[in-house]
2Fe-2S iron-sulfur cluster-binding protein
Amino acid sequence: MKTTITVNGQARALDLDPRTTLLDALREELDLKGTKKGCDHGQCGACTVLVNGVRINSCLSLAVMHDGDAVTTIEGVGTPDALHPIQQAFLKEDAFQCGYCTPGQICSTLGMLKEVADNWPSQATEDLAAKIELTDAEIRERMSGNLCRCSAYPQILAAIRSVAEAGA
């Protein structure tokens, strides 16, 4: 099937088997290897990308479903010379060890911060009528779909907290 997806700001025309996941299209067809294939079952979050600003597990989504959508992968978040504030915070807080989950963690953080800004409640949100307060419990709940085998959770939390407090 012919599909056009805007990836990291660039329209990309693809001719795909309709069974191709968004993750495989990104990695194999577009050679964007930053998005990781972890469990391939939507359980680890290593494949998290943003679609139209909303975070999804790209291993659970067919690429042809995203015809006309805007997809942001880790390659579209900052550059080596101009890191995004969340990337800077991950470095500053040492929020990774092996780094395998880091692209998904960063994309998920960006989506999560937008959810909070848009006042989307989570399971941890206590008052649904009030503006969401980004507590540690709220961050942990919202990031619970992103696993880290190295257990860098305290550093990830610190990185997210620093960016949220800075308003970046």
Remarks:
- The chain has a mean pLDDT of 96.
- The helical segments are 22-29, 85-92, 102-117, 136-142, 153-166.
- The radius of gyration is 16 Å.
- The chain is about 30% helix and 15% strand.
